[in-house]
Design brief:
By secondary structure, the protein is an alpha/beta fold. The protein is 27% helix and 25% strand. Strands 1, 2, 3, 4 and 7 form a five-stranded antiparallel β-sheet that branches. A four-stranded parallel β-sheet has the order 8-11-14-20, with no helix packed on it.
């Protein structure tokens, strides 16, 4: 009697096939698991790095704002005015500031500047290379902000000269920003005013020197007023009324008294000019219309205009100042962001 092994052979082949399929499925599962794990880890690293970056950036902006406050209130700050800033870094959950060189006097939230013999910020003579006062000589003080932020998602035990320091670390971001404060001797200006400044000549009048004011600049003319150098105001450029409030609304004769034009140079050498249209109803190219933004003088943080002010900011002013006048006519808007100077 002959026994057939065909059925047993088929059963063996089916078992091998099933095992191969299971091995393939296992390999695919492991591959997907590794891929998901890698993606999660990559996303975690990106998130961790973003957390470190934005913490460092936020800390830098915080120090920048505090320095701006100090400079606003103190013309020449001393070390005693600046030291409290670096001693009080902002706090962020899961982020610390540290000095990578482990210097005991630094904390990763740092401010550097040249010092004099008393340890206070020291200025040096130099030429201004950027901005509306480029080419002027001034007393320049450089300040460098350094922020070194590190997340605390991982830990590593390290030794420092046998001290066994434990560092909690993850992503690390280091940001550096350089600032300058510049004091410009006023004798370099043709006209400099600490308060509001007005030009309202009856006949033709030309002025070739640099014009600057820490208040508003009022421009009107009975004929043609020509300004041939850089012209700027820390406040606003106002062309539709005089500083005493005289305009078409308060005086019917305003238009007849000041029917002329104001032209301001649009080139560094003063060779070409653009007409600044004056007078209500005839178009306006000033930074604000309908009167000054009064409250900004007392509170620069009230933008674009303070309560009770009659002025309305000119939405086209940035284009007029930077493009039309090539930066030769600028305003500061009392520190508001709409200013161009």
């Amino acid at each position: 009697m002959v026994v057939s092994h065909h059925t047993q052979t088929q059963r063996g082949i089916a078992l091998i096939t099933a095992m191969l399929i299971l091995l393939l499925l296992l390999s695919l599962s492991l591959g997907f698991a590794l891929l998901v794990s890698s993606e999660q880890r990559s996303s975690g690293v990106d998130l961790d790095h973003s957390q470190a970056f934005y913490a460092a950036y936020g800390a830098m902006e915080e120090m920048n704002a505090q320095l701006a406050y100090v400079f606003t209130n103190t013309y020449a700050p001393q070390a005693s005015d600046l030291n409290p800033i670096v001693k009080a870094p902002p706090t962020f959950s899961g982020v610390s500031f540290y000095d990578p060189n482990n210097l005991p006097t630094n904390n990763g939230y740092e401010l550097y500047y040249p010092v004099d013999k008393n340890g206070n910020p020291a200025a040096s003579n130099g030429q201004i290379t950027q901005g509306q006062y480029a080419g002027f000589q001034g007393q320049i003080t450089n300040y460098t902000i350094i922020v070194n932020a590190q997340t605390q998602n991982y830990s590593l035990t390290t030794g420092n000269a046998g001290a066994g320091i434990i560092n909690q670390y993850g992503s690390e971001v280091r940001l550096v920003r350089t600032l300058q404060t510049v004091s410009i001797p006023v004798f370099q200006f043709g006209i400099f005013s600490e308060t509001d400044l007005s030009f309202f000549p009856g006949p033709n009048f030309s002025f070739g020197g640099v014009v600057a004011t820490n208040g508003d600049l009022y421009l009107a003319s009975g004929a043609t007023l020509t300004l041939s150098s850089q012209t700027s105001a820390y406040g606003d450029i106002i062309t539709d009324q005089l500083s005493n409030g005289l305009n078409n609304t308060t005086s019917p004769t305003f238009a007849s008294q000041y029917p002329g034009i104001v032209q301001v140079t649009n080139s560094a050498g003063g060779g070409t000019y653009t007409t600044l249209v004056t007078g209500p109803g005839a178009g306006n190219m000033g930074s604000i219309t309908g009167g000054p933004s009064l409250d900004e003088t007392a509170n620069p943080l009230v933008c674009p205009k303070g309560p009770g002010s009659t002025g309305t900011p000119n939405s086209n002013w940035t284009t007029i100042s930077i493009s039309t006048y090539k930066g030769q006519l600028r305003d500061g808007a009392f520190g508001c962001s709409r200013g161009t100077g």
